[in-house]
Design a protein that fits this description.
The chain is of the alpha+beta class. Helix content is about 40%, strand content about 15%. Among the domains are: about 10-55; about 70-115, Orthogonal Bundle (Arc Repressor Mutant, subunit A); about 145-295, 2-Layer Sandwich (Nucleotidyltransferase, domain 5); about 385-460, no CATH class. It has helices at about 10-20, 25-30, 35-50, 70-80, 90-100, 105-115, 185-200, 225-230, 250-260, 265-280, 295, 385-395, 405-420, 425-435, 435-445, 450-460, 475-480; strands at about 145-150, 150-155, 160-165, 175-180, 205, 235, 320, 325-330, 335, 345-350, 355-360, 365-370, 375. Helix 1 (about 10-20) crosses helix 3 (about 35-50) and helix 15 runs antiparallel to helix 16 (about 450-460). The radius of gyration is 34 Å and the shape is elongated. The chain starts with 7 loop residues before the first helix and ends with a helix.
Length: about 475
C-alpha cells in the first residue's frame, strides 16, 4: 500500500471542518498532536481570513534595527548609474562628503547594495605565468634545473613521473626519482635529500607548473618555492611554452636509454634510473664540456644544508605568523595573504597613514589599509635579486674560483639592489649596510684592499634614499612610487 501524502494546509482544513461540525477542541487537539493554544490560533485565523489564513506566514521580523534606509540605498544606486566606473569605496566617500550628518554605511554594505541590484560585474582573476630573467652561470652550483619528465606507463599499468635535478654549468645529474605523482609532498623529500648530499645552490630554475609554482597563489608561488626562498635560494622561471630554456636535452637521453621499454614496477624503474645516473655522470662525455664527463667538472657546493632558521623582522613594527588558512591577524581583522605562506613569519610595517606594508624575508609582498583589510600586491618581488639573494651570494662566495670574483659578484649584487631600493625599503637598506659588512670586510682582506678602498665600497653600497613615503600618500600613490612613477 503506497504512502499517503498530506499537506499542512490540508490538515488544518480538516481540523477546522471537524471543529465546525461540533467536535470538542481538547479531543481534536489531542488527535492532531497539537496544543490547545495552537488549535485556538488556527481557528482564530480561519475566522479572520478564511482559508487563506491557514497558510504559513512569513517569519521575517517586522523591522531590522540596522537596516539601511531606503533613501540612502536609492542614492547609492543613483551614484552607481551616474559613475559606472566607481566602486564601493568611492561611492561611500561621496556619500560621506555629501551627507555628513547621516551615518555613512560601511564599504561592505555599499557593495552588498550594488550586488543585490545586479550592478557588480565580477571578473575572474587569472594568473598568467611569466618567465623571469635567466642567468647563464659558468660554475657548478650557481644554478640547478629541476623538472618532471613527461609521465609514462609502467608494465603494471601505473604511471611514473620522473623528477630530475641537474646542475646547469656541469650538466651533472644530481637526482632522478621515479615518483607516482607530482604532489609537492614527495618533491620536498627529493630536494631535501639532494641538498643534504650536494649542498645548496644559488638559484633553481623550473617551469611554471606544479609543484614548483601555483596558478592561484600570490605571485605564482608554491610551498616548495617558499621553502627555497627560506633557504636563500633564488627562483628562476622559464617562459611558458619554452621547455628548451630548462635543459630538456637530457630528458631525451633519459627517455631513450632508461624508459624504453618501461620497467615492470616503480622499484625496477628506479634501478634503471640509478644506472643511468651512473653512466650519465661518469661515462658519457659532453660536447658542451669539451668532451669531459660531468663528474670531472662538478664539485659539491660549499653551502651546507642546515635547515631553516627563525625569521625576524627588526626593521618592522611587528611580526605576524600566517595561519593555516593563509591569513594574518591585524587587530580585529583577518588579512588574506596566501596559503603557501602558512606557518611562516611575515613583517608588517606602517609606511603611511593607515597603510601597512607586508614583507616576507626581504621581499615586499604588498600593501593593505586598516579600513578594508584587503592586500594589494605589488610587482613580483621574487624576480629580482633582494637582500636574501645577497645573503645567498655571500654564502656562495667561497665556491667561486677566486676571492676577487666573489667580491666582484657582491659588487654587482649590491649595485642591482641599490637601483631597485625605494624610499619605503629602509629595512632593506639597513640589512644592506649592517648584514653584509662582514662579507665586504672578508673580501677586502683576501683581495688586499686598503681601508680607503673599502670605505669607498661601503659608501657606494649605502642607500641614499632613507626617507619613507609621505603620510598623505594613498595606497595607489605608494604602489605607484614603488614602480618609480613619482
Amino acid at each position: 500500500m503506497p504512502w499517503k501524502e498530506c499537506h499542512v494546509v490540508d490538515e488544518r482544513l480538516r481540523f477546522v471542518a471537524r471543529l465546525l461540525d461540533g467536535e470538542k477542541m481538547s479531543a481534536l487537539c489531542s488527535e492532531f498532536g497539537i496544543s490547545r493554544k495552537t488549535g485556538y490560533k488556527i481557528y482564530g485565523r480561519y475566522r479572520e481570513c478564511g482559508t487563506e489564513g491557514l497558510t504559513d506566514r512569513s517569519r521575517r521580523p517586522h523591522r531590522h534595527a540596522n537596516q539601511l534606509p531606503i533613501a540612502i540605498e536609492k542614492v547609492i544606486i543613483r551614484l552607481k548609474k551616474e559613475y559606472p566606473g566607481w566602486g564601493a569605496p568611492k561611492i561611500r566617500e561621496r556619500l560621506r562628503r555629501q551627507y555628513a550628518p547621516v551615518q555613512c554605511p560601511a564599504i561592505s554594505t555599499v557593495h552588498a547594495v550594488l550586488d543585490r541590484h545586479g550592478l557588480v560585474r565580477r571578473r575572474r582573476r587569472r594568473h598568467r605565468a611569466k618567465g623571469t630573467m635567466l642567468s647563464q652561470p659558468v660554475h657548478p652550483n650557481e644554478l640547478w634545473c629541476a623538472d618532471y619528465k613527461g609521465e609514462f606507463m609502467l608494465a603494471n599499468r601505473e604511471y611514473c613521473y620522473p623528477l630530475t635535478i641537474t646542475d646547469f654549468a656541469s650538466r651533472y645529474l644530481l637526482s632522478c626519482e621515479a615518483l607516482s605523482t607530482t604532489k609537492e609532498t614527495y618533491a620536498f623529500a627529493v630536494f631535501e635529500r639532494a641538498f643534504k648530499d650536494f649542498g645548496l645552490p644559488i638559484a633553481i630554475r623550473t617551469d611554471n607548473g606544479v609543484p614548483f609554482a601555483s596558478a592561484h597563489a600570490l605571485y605564482g608561488l608554491s610551498k616548495l618555492a617558499v621553502w627555497w626562498l627560506r633557504l636563500g635560494i633564488q627562483l628562476e622561471r622559464i617562459k611558458p611554452g619554452h621547455p628548451e630554456q630548462n635543459g630538456r636535452r637530457m630528458h631525451l637521453t633519459l627517455k631513450t636509454e632508461a624508459t624504453k621499454p618501461a620497467a615492470a614496477n616503480v622499484l625496477q624503474q628506479q634501478a634503471r634510473f640509478d644506472d643511468f645516473i651512473e653512466r650519465y655522470n661518469k661515462d658519457r662525455p659532453h660536447q658542451a664540456l669539451a668532451m669531459k664527463v660531468p663528474s670531472e667538472v662538478y664539485s659539491r657546493s660549499e653551502r651546507p644544508y642546515r635547515g631553516l632558521c627563525e625569521l625576524d623582522y627588526p626593521f618592522h613594527d611587528f611580526t605576524a605568523t600566517v595561519t593555516q588558512c593563509g591569513r594574518i591577524c591585524f587587530k580585529t581583522r583577518k588579512i588574506n595573504l596566501s596559503t603557501v605562506f602558512a606557518g611562516q613569519n611575515v613583517g608588517v610595517k606602517q609606511v603611511a597613514d593607515r597603510i601597512w606594508l607586508v614583507s616576507f624575508m626581504s621581499y615586499d609582498l604588498g600593501y593593505f589599509d586598516d579600513e578594508t583589510g584587503r592586500l594589494e600586491p605589488i610587482e613580483n618581488p621574487c624576480g629580482r635579486l633582494g637582500c636574501a639573494g645577497l645573503a645567498g651570494v655571500t654564502r656562495a662566495a667561497a665556491s667561486l674560483p677566486s676571492a676577487q670574483v666573489a667580491l666582484d659578484r657582491l659588487q654587482a649584487a649590491f649595485d642591482d639592489l641599490a637601483d631597485n631600493v625605494g624610499g619605503h625599503e629602509v629595512h632593506a637598506a639597513g640589512a644592506l649596510r649592517e648584514g653584509h659588512a662582514d662579507a665586504l670586510q672578508a673580501g677586502a682582506e683576501v683581495c688586499g684592499e686598503s681601508d680607503d678602498e673599502l670605505a669607498i665600497r661601503r659608501t657606494h653600497f649605502s642607500c641614499p634614499r632613507a626617507a619613507g613615503p609621505s603620510p598623505r600618500l594613498s595606497l595607489r600613490s605608494v604602489r605607484t612610487r614603488r614602480r618609480g612613477r613619482l
